[in-house]
User: What shape does this take?
Amino acid sequence: MTMDPAPAPGTRVAVRTREDRRAGRAGRRMSRTAWRRLLTVAFSLAVVAGVVLALRDQDWSALAGLFHGGSAVALLGAAVVSAAGLLCGTRSWLLTLSAVALPVPGAAGVRMFFVGFLGKFVPGRVWGLIAQMRMGEQVGATKSQMAGTYLVNLVIVLLTGGAVGLLVAPTLLADDAGWLLLPLALLLVLVARPDLIHVLAGLAARLARRQPPPSPGRPDNLRLAIVFQTLAWVLSGVHLWVIAVLLGADPAASFPVAVGGFALAVVVGSVAVFAPDGVGVRELLLVPALATVLPLPAAVAAALASRVLTLVAELATSGAALGAVALRDRSAPATPLRKESTV
Assistant: This one.
């Protein structure tokens, strides 16, 4: 019977040290996971608080005239079209990200967009960008690239929204159809010269004393981003047109007023960073535009109904998108590894 040789001096210490290092790494991972969960809960609560703030102190009795035979189906359809508009905006942001920073896996890009999008309900508007920067680092994007994407996307959103907003100009300023050529001309210039977007973003960065965004590496993606964002504005404004028609507005006369007025009101509301989701500011601009095709009480009701319907559509779409990504991530380890498509 032979005895096992005695371990070399220091072997147990080395094994114990490796185990300690593994335990330390596991503890740090658990700590980071706990912090991420805590931040997720805090962000979710802030979004809920912003939504409550946007809906409080509203005169819900003004909506009574909106509900009559067949209106529920029409409103549901309007909500679906609004959701489609938000998805077009998602595609525009992903294309901008691929042009300014880098292409990212589809699921990661969707998560980044909707987390940043929900940040608009939190006063200050910077929390969504901070979250996007942290998530961008996980897929290889630098903070400067994510900030550049935010800035270029902001310029695209404001310019296309302003162009679509010009649809309301003939009603508010003069009865001249020539005004309708302005948004089309501006959008054609942007599509033909997407480098102007980068020039304007660089100017905004200098005014804010920030580093200019990187030059777009994929100008064709930037062109597509402009097209998708323009489509997003048009689809998003359709819901207000449906509401106005349900309240008695003429369908033909109210369409440019609703689509253009909504785009212009949201653009101005997004600049008002002190108001979660532009609450109050958006309605202040919508009511005068709608009053050109509706009596004033009905215009107020339409503006309030627009707020409620867009909130429902945005929260439902965001929740569905983030839930789908979470389910995909949870089931991914059980499926064979495959290369994920990028945008």
Notes: Confidence is low (pLDDT under 50) at residues 334-341. The chain has twelve helices and no strands. Residues 11-55 form the longest helix (45 residues). Residues 194 and 223 are 6 Å apart (CA to CA).
